[in-house]
Amino acid sequence: MPPRSQQATQxxxxxxVVSLGTTSLSQPISTSQKRFNPxxxxxxxxxxPSRGPPAKRRGGKEKIIEILDEDGEEERLHExxxxxWVDIYEPITEADLVVHVRKVEDVRRWFTEAFEGGPSGxxxxxxxxxxxxxxxGTGKTATxxxxxxxMGFDILEWRNAIGEASSSTWDPSxxxxxxYESTFAKFEAFLNRATSxxxxxxxxxxxxxxxxxSSQRGSNPPAxxxxxxxxxxxxxNILHPQIQIQFxxxxxxxxxxxxxxxxxxxxxxxxxxxxxxxxxxxELLTSGAGGYASSREKGGILDIRTVLPRDLLMxxxxxxxxxxxxxxxxxxxALTGLVDRHFSHTRTSSSLSHLVAPTKETIDTVIESANGxxxxxxxxxxxxxxxxxxxxxxxxxxxxxxxxxxxESTTRRESSLALFHLVGKVMYNKxxxxxxxxxxxxxxxxxxxxxxxxxMDPPRLPAHLKEHGRRASRVDVDLxxxxxxxxSSLFSLYIHQNYTQFCNELDxxxxxxxxxxxxxxxxxxxWYQANPHRFHLLTLGTLHSLPSPVPRRxxxxxxxxxxxxxxxxxxxxxxxxxxxxxxxxxxxxxxxESLTTDTSRWSKLEVTLELGAVLKLKQxxxxxxxxxxxxxxxxxxxxxxxxxxxxxxKKGQQVDEDVVGDDDQTLAEDEVDIAVAKKFAGxxxxxxxxxxxxxxxxxxx
Amino acid sequence: MSLWVDQYRxxxxxxxxYHRGLSQRLKSLAASGDFPHLLFYGPSGAGKKTRIACTLRxxxxxxxxxxxxxxxxxxxxxxxxxxxxxxxxxxxxxxTPSEAGNYDRVVIQEILKEIAxxxxxxxxxxxxxxxVVINEADSLSRDAQAALRRTMEKYxxxxxxxxxANSTSRLIAPIKSRCLLMRVAAPDSEEMTxxxxxxAKKENLNMPEEAIEKIVEDSSGNLRxxxxxxxxxxxxxxxxxxxxxxxxxxxxxxxxxxxxxxxGEQSPARVMEVRTKxxxxxxxxxxxxVILKTVAERVVERVDESLKADIMHWAAFYETRMRIxxxxxxxxxxxxxxxxxxxxxxxxxIDMSSFD
Lengths: 701, 356
Fold this sequence. Notes:
Chain A: InterPro entries: Checkpoint_prot_Rad17_Rad24, P-loop_NTPase, RAD24-like_helical. The structure holds two protein chains of two kinds. By secondary structure, chain A is mostly helical.
């Protein structure tokens, strides 16, 4: 899976930025001109012998912030100034947080309720697990830490200490270590101890793998506070199905035990959203890895649904608070403040003259390329300051453009388009010369013009192809594909679900539907399973068929209903199977001998297509005349009931006019669902949003 | 309690009501020592499985009716467990490969190998070979068919295969050429009437003439359906008085309503409505091909003569795509939209010509 490994290397490589600071003077790099690959750039630097203290390699899932902490800690001894800005300017007070005030308030209220029990005092037992989700670098952990400081509770954090345990106890000459304790057993023990016992010395850790982080980080001496929380940021390997089951049961047990106790300890789970990259799966499929790999692939995403079992997630004990990417305005404020503080501070304290203050434009570029990730933004900022010094030495004029390119290439995070915007971009089918929106600002209009200027007009088509002539599209399909958070199959379902609202004429519908149908069936035997160009085909086909410009009638984007019906179909098949089984066994009992050949006669299809009416009659008859004497199993009623709903439930309404309204209502529910759950979406751009974006917001994302 | 269809199913080749020539041939085949692989094909409800069972009985005697049901676990190549119900006697085994989904090749291979490697131990057995009955053979995947082709030759000494399919068009040619093809045609109305009367007599029913006529007409050659309808009628009004109305299965009426929707209005909004109905049908396990066929037939009834050919052409077109593709709803909807568009254009064009 290329992108993930890429991410991983990036994460690991990032600490190398530290060393860049120390080595860049001795090693002039001629980077100001060319745009170079961020990965190779890092590895070049990383492999140089004069590298700073090596980043600690610990468990693969180690969070970057923790690595950075370690480095920061060690380097403080050598040279104070080499610490990362992320650590130096870690938010201490609530004002420093770049999180929206309301989000912080939500989290604080949860903690208050967890410790004090809310106004009625009874809420305490329901505030068991808080799940903080959102993209990385949006201040989830920082919020918890700031609040811990402010409200005075301790944080017990779990860490997968695989490296420590195995390096100290593993001896290749003796095969198996008797004292070996699986990581999960350790985790369970940690959870038990953390919930039932109170630490006597808040400074010391409960077990080797546990550290009380608040005391480490807090500058004030830790007051012995009775309150503490458990922070799970570094989860056990729950992608392994068995461990996932164990983990879920551990959480259930935790809720069971602590909801009864007097001073229960709450758990906070911090989870960074990982987005599934569409292309990955397509490529996997076509490269022959096959359905097996792809099904594993699907499960390989660490999101809230895998961490918390569904019943818990929906239950009263779990609260999920989703963080949005940091809004550009907030980030700008924070970054400017940081720069001001840093440079005023360095001027007074020591001679840190090898850094130059970044210009305003640089900060803007950083913000733009960070995609709402404050951590990445700060890192990028520090990096530019270091790189900027060097390039200033060479040529002043080229400094600006050079550093911008360099910075863009090195710091741009893999952007992912929110699902909503992806669908919007395609469905609104913007083409060159479209009139701009009524609500568009002057800047937007200017941008659109600039974009139009870069678009080439397509060549004129011959007369017999006239009807296929379109103006140049503003949608860049390649970019869309690269940024798409979903794979082409899901993408096609989204198009399918939503296209009708965007069409004026039936012919447009027909073209889109034909393109969807073709793309769905174009894999077949030629390619392994799916056509590798499906995404492009789908997008281009849809864009070609949609009217231009698409009329605005406040279209809303819905989630595909496909999966709902698929689940229903699965249940129905189970019922069919049950019925078949019942028929077999039942007949067997009737003939007293062993089973007769008749029994297997009924194939599934025959049961579904032909038996429905008779089963229904039998059901009513059995109920009326001989209740129970037929030995009707419950599965039988399940099946006949199913047939019943298909026949009457919907049919009655189907001809009526109100069904349309009804459908709309259910769709509207879905729509809320999509806004809240945001399963695939990267999140909206505005800090406040939990609601959904109006169509106008789509344009400039 | 068992259904009449099962209760009065003929047990021996002599008891069969129609296709006497076929029965005769099967009988002589069973008597000769040289029994080939067989492929029974024909529309559903024509009596294929009944004939297979009768033939087995003819070959092995009544012992073949002593069945047991085994639940067997197979491992797919990706180590997924597949649980499959096998119906078997001492002499034969029945498998429905569609239960194994995508992994039918594994299941087929395992079972065939196992059967082929065990000798018949029953000394009283009339034949030295065992029979494997493969139901719904036309749903076998290509892989499975290819696997079958080799095994059919290799294990000829102690195994025979009887395939049962609705149509031979989805079987690969090598398999067809290795089997003796047995076409079981749907019974004509006279034959159906005689069977219905036979069952009615056994049940001491006095079925009115016109009721039987109606049933026969309605079930269009599907004897199973006819018998089920008759039983349903009996259940509705035990003494068979008053007006007898034949209840169509729910899905069929539903499909007809969908067709009416398509013909009734042609607009993007209606497309959404039709889609919901298709989804509903699919989620009730109605096979997409059946949906397409039923709706198309109904639509054709309701439109102008000049459109009929086109509608059927597109139905066939999208049906092919549906077989290759994954998301059935796309193709169903694509067809529906196509028909709507055709229909609309038809009227639009008429309007234009009247203006001229």
